[in-house]
Design a protein that fits this description.
Number of domains: 1
CATH topology: Immunoglobulin-like
Number of helices: 1
Radius of gyration: 20 Å
Largest sheet: 10 strands, mixed
Number of strands: 10
Strand content: 35-45%
Shape: globular
Distance between the termini: 48 Å
CATH architecture: Sandwich
Oligomer: single chain
Structural class: mainly beta
Order of helices and strands: HEEEEEEEEEE
Length: 149
């Protein structure tokens, strides 16, 4: 191989690496329905003997209003809303078009009830989110100390 061909190959490889490095990447904590993004569903590690856990997440990039109506995970027998305006024993969370909505430890939150196992820091578990629009999002529930953004 001549020197100029080798140099050209190195330049092409370098350019390809630069393009790859600059391209936006999806993060492992982003999940999408047809009309919104779910960002970083998480909860804290559960203390021994705890039977519930508060789940936080953000809904953004909302192109049409929707509603979270059900949540399923193998680590809990059920889920319900808590906080201001929440109805007991039900999942019902309005997500406005064009706005960011959040489920958080302070304010409106999602509570997993009747945990089937302790939630340990650093683990991740399947989380299925069901929306009124009919969309079902297979997400991952991360067990963290705090929220990442």
């Amino acid at each position: 191989m001549s020197g100029s061909m080798a140099r050209r190959s190195v330049l092409h490889a370098g350019a390809a690496l630069c393009v790859f490095a600059l391209a936006p990447r999806a993060r492992a904590c982003e999940f999408f329905s047809s009309n919104l993004r779910v960002f970083h569903p998480w909860t804290r590690a559960s203390p021994p003997g705890s039977d519930s856990a508060t789940v936080s997440m953000i809904f953004d990039q909302v192109t049409r209003a929707d509603r979270l109506i059900a949540v399923e995970t193998p680590v809990a027998e059920g889920a319900e809303m808590g906080g201001v305006g929440a109805r007991a024993n039900v999942v019902d969370f309005a997500i406005a078009q064009g706005r960011e909505s959040a489920l958080a430890e302070t304010g409106t939150y999602l509570r997993l009830v009747r945990l089937t196992q302790p939630l340990e820091i650093g683990r991740a578990y399947p989380l299925k989110l069901v929306f009124e629009s009919g969309d079902v999002v297979a997400a991952t529930l991360n067990i963290d100390y705090m929220r990442f953004r």
